[in-house]
Amino acid sequence: MKRLLLILAAVLMTAGTVNAQENTQEDRVRSDRKRVAVVLSGGGAKGMAHIGVLKVLEKAGIPIDIVTGTSMGSIIGGLYAIGYNAHALDSVARAQDWSYVISDKENLNNQSLRDRLKQYTYIFTTGLSIGKHETTGGGLIKGKNLAELFQQICTGYTDSLDFSKDLPIPFACVATNIIDNSEVDFHSGRLPQAMRASMSIPAAFAPVRLGDMVLVDGGLKNNYPADIAREMGADVIIGVTVQGAPKAADDMGGTMSIISQIVDVNCKNKVDENLAITDLHMQVDTKGYGSASFSAAAIDTLIRRGEEEAMRHWDDIIALKQRIGIDENFHPIILQPLRPQAMTEMRHVTGYTFENMTPQAEEFIRNKFNLHKRDSIDAGLAQQITTSMRIDLFYQTADCHFVPDDDGVRVIISAGNRKMVQLHAGMRYDLEEHASLQVSAEVPMKTATPMNADLTVRLGKRMMVRGAWTIHPRSFTRPTVDYTFRRNDIDIYDRGDRNYSILYHQHQVNLIPFNNDFRHFNLQMGLRWDYVTYRDRLVSDRLDNPVPLNDDHYYSYRIQANYISEDNWIFPTRGTRFKAEYAYYTDNFVKLNGKAGMSDIKASWRMSFTFGERFTLQPMVYGRLLFGDVIPSFGGNTIGGEWFGHYIEQQMPFAGIGNMEHVRKQFVAAQIQTQYRIGKNHYVLFRLAAGQQADKPKEFFDHRTLLGGQLAYYYNTIFGPVGASLGYSNHTKKPYFFLNLGYEF
C-alpha cells in the first residue's frame, strides 16, 4: 500500500493545480453542448482495457460528464469519477500486487515477522470462527483486501454521498440482489462499498450484505449499463465492452474459467438494448485473457489493446466532437485525484459507533488509541485501528469509515466474525532429511486482555513440539512465553566425510517480557532455559579421542533485533534482511562451570539490488563470535547447508558445503549471490562465499580462507520452491548435490 501511495504522490506532483473539488458540474458542462457519458462493462481483469480507451478519449479532447459501469467497469469508472485520470489509473493498476489484492492474505506490512514467516512455511491454511452465524462468507474470497484497497484509493469519498452531486463527475454502478434477482443501481451511498458490491463475482467473492439485500456482480442483470447513463441525462453515449467470444468445452479448464463462463452466459441481459442506444461502441479484443488475468504482463497487454481499439475509432471519436457541439480543438479540464494532503487530512469526530464488537473489544480499542480523548481522526489512524482489530483482537475482517455528521464525522468501527482456530500445514522433501511434515494451530482467547496460544508439531528426522502463549496488552509490547521440545538426529561432517551422528533431546523455555513489533522490525529481550540430554552417538574411525557428552542445562540472557523489508521472503528483488543477537550463557544465572559465562554474538545482513526486470544482486555478510573459556557442547559453531538455523540453531550456511561442519569459535563470512528470473517463476542462483575462522579475533588471518561456490535452479510454486543446487568448496574438496521440494522449516 505504501508503494501505491508513493506512486500516486509522484503522479500528483506533476499534475496541474486544478483539483477535482474545484470544478463543479456547472463549470464543466456548457449549456451549448451535449452531455457525454462513458459506459464501461464488466469483465474482471479484462476490464483493464478500459484504461487504454480512456487514455485515447482524453487525448482526443472528449469531455466526460457522466460515468456508469459494472463490475471492473464500476471500479475504473468510479475512480475516474473522483478524479483519477487515465494515466493515474494506469499507475494504480500497475502498482498493485494483484495476487495479494484478490486474496484474503494479511498485508505483510501489518504483520509481525513471525506471522510473515508462516505465510512462507505452510502450504495450507484454514480458519474456524466463533460467535454468531457467519454472514460474511459465500465465496472463496471474502474480499477484505479489495475492500481495504478501495477504502484507501477513494480517500475523501468514503462517506455516504450522492454520486451525482458530491462526486466531480456524476457516477452510477450496478449490483445484483440475489434475494429476489433484482437489479440494484447505486446512485448514492459509500463509493468503496458500491464498487465492491458491483464486482462480487458469485462463488469467487463473498457477496456484500446491505440491509436485507445480498449483493453480487451487477453483470448478472446489467453488464453494460447504458440505460442508466441515459436516465442520468446523457445525450451522447460512448461505450466499451471487453467480453470475448463464447468459450468452447475445451476452454473449460480451472475453477475460474467455469465461474467466468457462468457469469458471461448470464451477463447478456439488456446488452442488445443498451448497445442500440450507444452512439460509439468499442469492443476490445481480449482473446487469450480471462477474468483472473491480473499478471503484470496481462495488464500491460490489456491496457495497450484498449488504446489500440480506441485508435481504430479515432476518426469516429473526432467526428463525435462536432456532434457533441464543440470545436475539434476543444480540450476539457482533466481532473486530478485529491492532493496527498487530503489523504492525511484530520476530520473532527463527533462520536464513535462500534458494530459487532464485544464490550471488552470496544474498550480495548478505545484505550489503545486513546479514543476517549481523541476528537479528530485521519485515514492513517483508521487503518491502524483496523489492523489492530485483526491482529490483536483476531477479527477476520474489520472496517473503520466515516459518516458525515453536523460538525464533522461519526466514526463507524465494525468487525466481522472472530477467529477461533487457524490451522496450518506444511510439507517438504530434501535429500538430507527426506520427507518432513509440520502442522500448527493458533487459538485466540476471548479474554479482557487479548491472548493467543500457538502449537506447532514437526514430524521427520528432526522432531519438534512447540507451544507459545502471547499476551496482547494495550501497550506496545506483546509478552511471550514458549516451550520447545526437540528430538534431533544430526550428522556432523569433517571436510566432506561424515564424522559422527548424534541423537539428543533439547528442552527449551523462553520468557520474553519485551517483544515489540515496529512494522518490519522486531525487538526481543528475555531469558531462556535450555536442558540437553544426549541419547546416542555413532562415531567414525576418523574421530580420535571423542569428547564425552554430558547432560546439562543453561540459563541465557538474550536480546535480539530482526529487520526484514524484502519484498519477497524467498526470492527478493529489493529490500534488506538484518538480524543480530547477543546471548550470555550461564548455568546458575551468573557463571558457567564456575567461570565467567559465554558470550554469543551473531549477525547477518543481506541487501538486494535489482538491475533491469530480471537480475538481482544480493551481497551478504554474516558471522558468529563466541567468547569465554567454556563453550557448551551443543553451542559450538557449525557451517553448511542452505539456510540459517535449519538443522540446529547456530548453523550458518556456506556456499559449496552441503552438510554441517564444525568451525572454530570465531567465524565470519561474506557471500555474493546473483538471482536471475526466467519467465515468471523460474530462478537461476549463483553464490560465491568466503569465510575466515579462528579461536581469537587476532588470529583470523592465520588460517586459510574458506572458499565455496554454488549453482542452483528453482521453480517457485504455490507449494514452495522446487529445485536443486550443485556446489564445491576448498574445505570439502568435493562436489555436493542437494534437492529441495517445498518451503524450508
SSE order and pairing:
Blueprint: H1 2-13, H2 25-28, E1 36-40, H3 49-60, E2 66-70, H4 72-81, H5 86-95, H6 98-101, H7 113-119, E3 124-130, E4 139-141, H8 144-153, E5 161-162, E6 171-177, E7 182-186, E8 188-189, H9 191-198, E9 203-205, E10 208-210, E11 213-217, H10 219-222, H11 226-231, E12 236-241, H12 255-265, H13 271-276, E13 280-283, H14 296-312, H15 314-324, H16 340-343, E14 347-355, H17 359-368, E15 376-377, H18 379-391, E16 398-404, E17 409-415, E18 418-430, E19 434-445, E20 451-459, E21 463-471, E22 480-494, E23 497-518, E24 521-539, E25 552-564, E26 575-586, E27 591-592, E28 595-596, E29 598-611, E30 615-627, E31 638-639, E32 651-652, E33 661-662, E34 666-678, E35 682-694, E36 706-717, E37 720-729, E38 736-741
Parallel strand pairs: 1-2, 1-12, 2-6, 4-9, 12-13, 14-17, 31-32
Antiparallel strand pairs: 3-18, 5-8, 6-7, 6-11, 10-11, 14-15, 16-17, 18-19, 18-38, 19-20, 20-21, 21-22, 22-23, 23-24, 24-25, 25-26, 26-29, 27-28, 29-30, 30-34, 31-33, 34-35, 35-36, 36-37, 37-38
Structure write-up:
- The chain is 21% helix and 40% strand.
- With 745 residues, it is of the alpha+beta class.
- The strands form 7 sheets. A 16-stranded antiparallel barrel has the order 18-19-20-21-22-23-24-25-26-29-30-34-35-36-37-38. Strands 1, 2, 6, 7, 10, 11, 12 and 13 form an 8-stranded mixed β-sheet that branches. A 4-stranded mixed β-sheet has the order 15-14-17-16.
- Helix 4 (72-81) runs antiparallel to helix 9.
- It starts with a helix and ends with a strand.
